[in-house]
Each structure stands twice: as structure tokens, then as C-alpha cells.
Amino acid sequence: MIVALSLLGYALVLAVAGPRLLRAASWADRAPRLAIAAWQALTVTILASVALAGLALTFPTVSVSGDLAELLRACVMAIREQYASPGGAAAGATGAVLSLAVLGRTVWCIGAGLAGMTRERARHSRILDIVGHTDGHRGVVVLDSDEPAVYCLPGRRRRTVVTTGALQALDEAQLDAVLAHEHAHLSERHDLVLGLSRALASAFPAVALFRLAAEETARLVELRADDAAAARSGRLTVAGALLAVASGGIAHLSPAVALAAGGSGAAARVRRLIPPNNPLGRARTAAGLFAVAALFALPVLLLGGPAAAAAGHNLCPDANASASSPAP
Amino acid sequence: MPKFGDLESAIMEQIWHAEGPLLVREVLEGLDRGLAYNTVHTVTEILHRKGWLTKERDGRAFRYGAAAGRDKYVAGLVTEALSVTDDRTAALVGFVEGMRPEEADELHRLLSAAREQDMQA
Q1: Could you give the CA distance from residue A109 to residue A210 in angstroms, rounded to a whole number?
Q2: A-B interface: how many C-beta pairs under 8 angstroms?
Q3: CATH code of the domain covering residue B25
Q4: Scanning every residue of chain A, which has its alpha carbon at the shortest distance from the alpha carbon of B70?
Q5: Three-state DSSP class for A133?
Q6: Keyword Transcription on this protein (chain B) (predicted)?
Q7: How far is CA A59 from CA A52, A62, A74, A141, A287, in A?
Q8: Which of B50, B86, B111 sits opposite A236 (nearest CB)?
Q9: Interface touch B98/A257, C-beta < 8 Å
Q10: Any domain includes B72
Q11: Which residues form the domain of B101?
């Protein structure tokens, strides 16, 4: 019970404190890759903690003894003991429902998200095959449209698509930067990162954190791709390319962008690129990575700690003598 | 023999450029690739089944016309690409969304100032 409650408490603390730490931090924009990892770790750890809490309620004592037969027997005895009392049975049932609900919903929504993504991409790709022209020299597909737009189709047949409007708006160096940006999206599989965070947001719409994580991830993958492009073409070239494509596409300004109080995401990206580069130092990045790893490790330790301690005890004193052979 | 997708694309190209619906024979002549009639006929039928082409009887043969203009398909793709920010599935990953004109003006000024500084440095 204590293990389950601490795991739930941990999830709650993460859900409340996590976004504050990550959002308030100015380091996120300086180390977008680390920040993406942190958001992913945060969401996955919260889910895992809740699922493990359910597990801890259902299976009260888990022995980590090396002997499988003994382990099973110990488990059965412990479970029998717990379910003998009505309160224990209720807690066990609640735990099982909690675990199954969280895991089932997560798996289902990720599966549905991936399937939807694949379907939509295939449909888009089929039309693109017929109406797009392949530019073998640049390795892109060109669409005849005055609207400046650049995007990529991730997946097995990954492609970058550029409209003639965008080709007109960009000079050679800028186009090179844009292609480096899209290449970063494709090679780092940002579509999967985005797909996961969006699937979690749709799986648990009541949890604001998941929606926030999806929004932040979408913003951060763009910063990461901008950095990759800047490493190749220079920051000001990338800023110029962003500005050229974004300011040409005003007609399609989506309402969400128009309503954003602090200016659009595009403007923020250009602003970020104009001053000299200021990436997060090596020591701080390492510290950040350590924190991300610790985030993951804690619930496992919470669950494993008491179990490891229990391994030293005889779990089922009433069972026959052979079951009480010394555990390692 | 060109790739199947290429042929679909070439046939649609022919029909989009034509004045009106075409016979398979006319498509074949326009393609000028030395393809067999049956090949072109099969692919044209596939395009009809997929909803790209309309089909109307003309004597003993059929005439195929475009179900929609090429621009309409392109516009559809571009709209999808530009709305990726509120796309729930991440099927596409866009480069950048739009920007307000006054924002763009200000950033253009900032950027030219930064470029000048770079030149001087």
C-alpha cells in the first residue's frame, strides 16, 4: 500500500512540478534536444508510475528471489493473504483496474495514432505521386503552387516537398538551410516523437500536462531542426529562410497562430536565431541528462526497493518448510 | 517500361492538358512512349476506379476526363501541409507556419541589422 501511494504521489508531484520546471526554464530553448527528452521522460514516467502503483496494489509483495518456483509460491501466498480481507481485495481490484486502464488506454491511443498517421500519409503520398514533379538534383518533390510551403513526409518513403512559391521566395543558400531543417526532422524521426506526445494527449485529455507536453514538443522539434540547419548554413540564413517562407504564407495564417498573444511560433523562432548562438554548456547538459535518467529510475526503485528488502524475509511462514529456504 | 506511378502521373498530365475527355487511343498517342494499348487502358481504368477520372461512353469506346483540376489536388496538399500545426496525427512535418505582416516587417529589420553587424565584424 505504501509503495502504491508513494508511486501515485510521485506521479502527482511530477505532474504539478514537472511543467513548471520545464516551461519556466530558459535552458529548454538553448538545448531543445534535451528538453524534448525531458518532456518525453516526464510523460512516460508519470504513466509508468500510475501503472506500477496499480501493480503494487494488485500484487502486494513481490519477492525477487532467484528461484522461480519459490517466487511464484510466495506470490500466491501473499496474494491469498491480502485477498482474505475485504479491504485488501478492494485495493487489489482497484489496482488491477487502474493498471489495465492506464496501460490499455495508452497502447490503444498510440496504436490508433500510428495507424491514422500511416493512413493519412499514404493518402497524401498517393496524390503527391501524381501531381508532384520530382527534382532529382535537389532530391525534393516540387508542387506547382504560389503559396510558399515546405514540408516533409516521414516514413519509409521519406520525401521533402517544396512548392514553386517557396522556391521563388528562397535563394540557393536559404533553400539549402530549409532542406537541412527538413532532413533533421526526417533523420531524427520527429514524426514519431510528435506522434507519441499527441497520442498521450488524446489518450488522457483531462490531464493538462499531456496536452502541454504535446504543444511544447511540437515547438521544440522545430527549434532542434532550426539548430541543425543553422549548424550547416548559419543562423542568419535560417532566420532569413524562415522569414521568407512564413511572411509569404499569410493567407493561410491559422486562427491558433493569429490568436497567440506573444506572437506566432514562427516569429519566436526567427527572434531566437538572430542573436549569436548560446547553447547550453556541456556540464549543464550532462546534469540535465542525469536528471532525466533519474526521473525514469525513481519509480522502479520505489517498486523494487521494498521488494528487495522483502527478499530477505520469509514471505509465507505458514507454507511448508521447503518454501522457506533462504533467499539470496 | 516506366514505373507504374510514373505512368499514372503521365496519363493524368495528358488529360489535364487536353481540351475535353480523351479516348484511351488519344492518351496513348499523346504519351508517345511506345506503350501497349492495353497497358494504358488498364492504368486509365485504375485511375477511374480510384476516382481521379470520370468515364463516359462515346460510341463503342469510353472517354476519360479529369474528375478535378490539377490545381485542386495541389491546393489540397498545400492546405494539409500548412495546417500541420493543428494536425493531430503528425503525418506531415511542416517547416514554418504563417506570420503576421507587422511581425514580419519588424523581423526583417532586425535581421538586416544583424547581417550588417556580421559584415562589419
Answers
A1: 13
A2: 179
A3: 1.10.10.10
A4: A131
A5: strand
A6: yes
A7: 10, 7, 11, 55, 35
A8: B111
A9: yes
A10: no
A11: 87-121
